[in-house]
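Handover notes (outgoing to incoming on-call)

Open items:
1. Pyruvate dehydrogenase E2 component: sequence verified, structure written out, both below. Nothing else pending on this one.
2. Nothing else urgent.
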Amino acid sequence: MAYEFKLPDLGEGITSGEIKKWHVRKGQKVEEDQTIAEVETDKAVVELPSPVTGIVEDIKAPEGGKVNVGEVIAVIKEEGAPEAPPQPKAAEKAQEARKPEVPAPKAEAQKVPVLATPATRMLAKQLGVNIDSVKGTGPMGRITDEDVRSAAQKPAAKPAEAPVPAPAMKAAGKEERIPFRGIRRTISENMIRSVSKTAQVTLVDDADLTRLVEFRERINKKLGGEVKISYLALFVKAVVAALIAHPTLNSSLDEEKGEIVLKKYYNIGIAVDTDRGLIVPVLKDADKKSLIDISKELVHIIELTRDGRIGIEQLKGNTFTIANIGSVGGLFSTPIINYPDVAILEMQQIRDMPRVVDGSIVIRKVMYLPLTIDHRIVDGAEGQRFMNDLKRFLEDPEQLLVSMV
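Pyruvate dehydrogenase E2 component structure tokens:
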């Protein structure tokens, strides 16, 4: 029996994907739950497991091809499926007619494939959960992310790192053409959508981080190397404290209903530079986590993102975004909002710069802070008030500590 393997529902409203890589070829035997392909969506690269055991009869979608959810991408001949017997000749038919009837053997019951999206399967793999043993509570017994979390009995096992294939390139004279697809094309679509649907304006200020630099050094010295508090973690805490005071910057616009949605949760998107392009994992419930927990989680999600192992559920739900390009260089730029957020903050380099303090010129640790806001929702004055509070928390670590209480 031929099983038509269709691109499954990948969740999060994703309607299509691009075949990034096939892990099988025509004629190859595959086992149930064996990864047979990687599909790249506008969120992440998702591994597709085979729902059945059998032989790959045909591959319908080429690498680099775009496919829609529900479209057949491969045909698998299931193991143990009965084949149609050859048609008997006329003489044999007459002879067979005189033979007593023998009951045909019953077909072996086939295993029902587990109903779960690739994202849920990836989550199960990360949490070390055997998805076959999980009871689904979704429609028609579909296994949900919450079902997997409930079944998790141990910390997530680190999956083997998969090498990222280099993009195919075509050279022509003095030109080199690189396929415009995958993450690169997704970034393009997201950027165009952001600038076309919002009214973006960038405010730029600077902050004297001298005391914050000293504060961080003291904390890390006391921690003794057990965990390292990063500047990014300190900025996350300062941003959340400022967002609580200025809720319009932690909102989105529901254009269909004509409503501004003020969000009472604080999920901070972290723009990560990877070999595949810019990807934004999300640090969820940042207001409820300690500085140490945030530092640890940032290291973890950034590592997963750069290794290409980040799950789709870790790339959704952002309410505000921080981009840190200080390690690359530059003075400041105008970051583009991570739609549907209404604001994005960019961290730049900490530079030794002259400042006037108590009438004297001294050298201080200074960072430029570009903040892009959606002027449809956030007025310039409110954006600057947010910036003023953010600077206050960054320039005076004691106030930042008080905000965490």
